[in-house]
Amino acid sequence: MQLHIHPTAERVLTDLADFFVAQAAEAIAARGRFVVALSGGSSPKKLYELLASPAYREKVAWPQVFFFFGDERNVPATDAESNYRMANEALLKPLGIAAAQVFAVDTTLPPAEAAAAYTETIRQFFGAEEARFDLVLLGLGDNSHTASLFPHTPVLHDASVGARKVFLTDKNVFRITLTAPLINQARAVAFLVYGQDKAAAVRHVLHDARDVEEFPAQLIAPAGETHWFLDQAAASLLPKQ
């Protein structure tokens, strides 16, 4: 695990954008394509806008990048809460990404069927190969959830490699998420976390005793590399090195 701690959120975003560019170049050189699972939320939106900006848009061979989603809300693709809509508006549409390069969750289906269909989409994309993303981008909630792996939900103990529905009783809503075993097959995982409100969650996940029911992001232990991109505020409760 590598920590990348910067004084400001802007520096964090720039460092992660540079990391994205480097990972894309390495994957394309080695395998001819870069397969990434995107995260939702306000923090990734700023990253996507940066990648689509003039400063970065020419640094990646975008026709060789394929986009999946780490999780999705059970809402129409046009809904303001849709992770796909956010990524499309901030990154995919500005870059002119072809529809054939984007694999969104089909939220017109019931949640269980949507999860099963997404599992099959991933299986077909990778074919006979292991389903191994080159990069999975993740955030961290103040309750230590990541993707839609929320505290005290059955999916935390799902050993399958695929997508599953998640029902959040406190919000009375469904989500679809990649399972931890699928995320953990990734070549690299990058957490983007900034702000003082995330400091306690960062400490729980990185420093406290293992308790995945309370701190689901502790489940993420990929076969490849793990990188945490943090500002000093988010890292403020970690033990001093």
Model description:
The protein is α/β, with parallel strands linked by helices and 241 residues long. The protein has one domain: Rossmann fold (3-Layer(aba) Sandwich), CATH 3.40.50.1360. It contains 6 helices and 9 strands, in the order βαβαββααβββαβαβ. The strands form 2 sheets. Strands 1-9-8-5-2-3 form a 6-stranded parallel β-sheet, with helices on one face. Helix 2 (42-51) links the parallel strand 2 (34-38) and strand 3 (65-69). Helix 2 packs parallel to helix 3. The longest helix is centred in the N-terminal third of the chain and has 23 residues, at 9-31. It is globular and about 45 Å long. It starts with a strand and ends in a 10-residue tail after the last strand. The mean pLDDT is 97.
Task: Write a concise keyword list for the protein shown above.
20% strand, alpha/beta, Rossmann fold, 241 residues, six-stranded parallel beta sheet, three-stranded antiparallel beta sheet, 9 strands, single chain
